[in-house]
């Protein structure tokens, strides 16, 4: 049984949770020779200055409240946690506090020697750097990288003593040795794709006995995984990105931790987690959160059930845990010099907490950008989580979401026959629902990612459909995110997920094929790369993401839309039909009868005179209108 501070009761549970009870009662932390705390430091010149330090390292039932023996901070209070191996030290940092080491001194009773000893906690307040987060905007292009699978820049960290899994390139769900140094060494390649932001899958320590490579089962909230290079290497990566005019996106999880996290192996307060009598999985039904008819059982399972059996579900409604997570989020922006957060499993945590967290980050960093993963099945459910949604009980302060609705529309629309709401009409109809969002241009759009089958495989390795999909991704509204290797037609279905998280050829010594140097590429791969890079160059040069959008209802499976501003105008034609002529009179409200169309991929110049010849047209074409 575990004591709950929140309910002042004992709860019993069986199965894997029994191990938690045993660990909670064991002296797992008492062997430490010094006191540690989370967060391990703070920074000057922050608005957020009232901190809760979660301290550990001694038996706090045998200690007196600490005193400040060095430094300028105000000690508000100290309390022992339900688990006496932890204490909560509440402090306030003065507004104009200088960088310094603050020292808190505890007096601890040694029961064997029957006398007290002094133990110190040193808490650094570090000088805040000049970095200010820039956030994201619709002109950005995100390049998404799986850190363990992109490039191995430092083989000496492939296996680390004390961490369960080392590098083993053969087999499924193993670590391959990719790391932050490898990514940093190849940032020129990423930048030359006209990427303006880099999103890495989670990099915090995942010391799990299995599946540790994916990063989504955190075991240390303040340490980048040593097999990826650690905290110092992450800061080098971040600064290298900024030096190359690329922003940094941090992948963060508030719904759960890994069951090897030290705060789960020895729990400060059982109210920090959701427990059931036996292992209970979430139902993954986000619509229950806003369904006026939903049962309480279904809502509870959605928010409080575990995502997986090795991922204990966090109770963000607990004020102590909520503050821990908010402080951690602010700390990492400053320590890692981060521009944006991609929030994993966004619909699953307590939504009031998520709103408070988002607002705290935006209050501290006015230009910071937050977007949440919303793997849901409809636009109303997806838009519910975005900021200023009319029917939500509070403002989420979430800038955007991962746009699964557009992903569904593109992947289905390219694979079905044209109909009343099928084919390219499915895409147009999805975009037409943008009235549901406060700022739909802030949604992050994509064709695939680490959890989804590779786009080129989904559309049956049809190169023309690949061009149509990539073309729409880069020219429709939203902030496009491209999963590494899309530019080279990487393939794979999620059976298992490992098959879409393959190595990027050239990132390991001895690779025959090298995507970075374009060695041993097929002709089709070379052609795809040129198409992709030409289109990303056009998007960057024209700042197309910030342009207005006007779309026309598709006819005969031909989808026409325009991106335009006061200076430039582009007409996009996506053609999956069989017609050879396109009547331009439909578009006269935006397309002059007398105009010149210059196709941007081929530089073909056309004077259409009311009709556009499609007989030699590609599946995707984009024309500058003059």
Q: How is this fold's topology laid out?
A:
Layout: E1 2-4, E2 9-11, H1 16-25, E3 36-38, E4 42-43, E5 50-56, E6 67-70, E7 74-80, E8 86-92, E9 100-110, E10 115-126, E11 142-145, H2 147-150, H3 180-185, H4 187-192, E12 197-200, H5 230-243, E13 247-253, H6 262-265, H7 296-304, H8 319-336, E14 340-344, H9 351-364, E15 369-372, H10 379-384, E16 400-401, H11 404-413, H12 424-431, E17 444-445, H13 455-458, H14 463-475, E18 479-483, H15 523-542, E19 548-555, E20 558-564, E21 569-575, E22 581-583, E23 597-599, E24 605-606, E25 611-613, E26 620-625
Parallel strand pairs: 4-10, 11-12, 11-18, 12-13, 13-14, 14-15, 15-16, 17-18
Antiparallel strand pairs: 1-2, 3-5, 5-8, 6-9, 7-8, 9-10, 19-20, 20-21, 21-26, 22-25, 23-24, 23-26
| Uncertain ranges | 1-32
Structural class: alpha/beta
- What is the global morphology? elongated
Q: Beta-strand level of the residues, as a percent range?
A: 15-25%
Radius of gyration over C-alpha positions, nearest whole angstrom = 27 Å
Provide the helix percentage: 10-25%
Total number of helices: 15
Distance between the termini: 74 Å
Q: Give the oligomeric state of the chains in this entry, treating copies of one chain as homo and distinct chains as hetero.
A: single chain
Mean pLDDT: 93
Number of DSSP E strands? 26
- Strand order of the main beta sheet, please? 16-15-14-13-12-11-18-17
Mind summarizing the main beta sheet? 8 strands, parallel
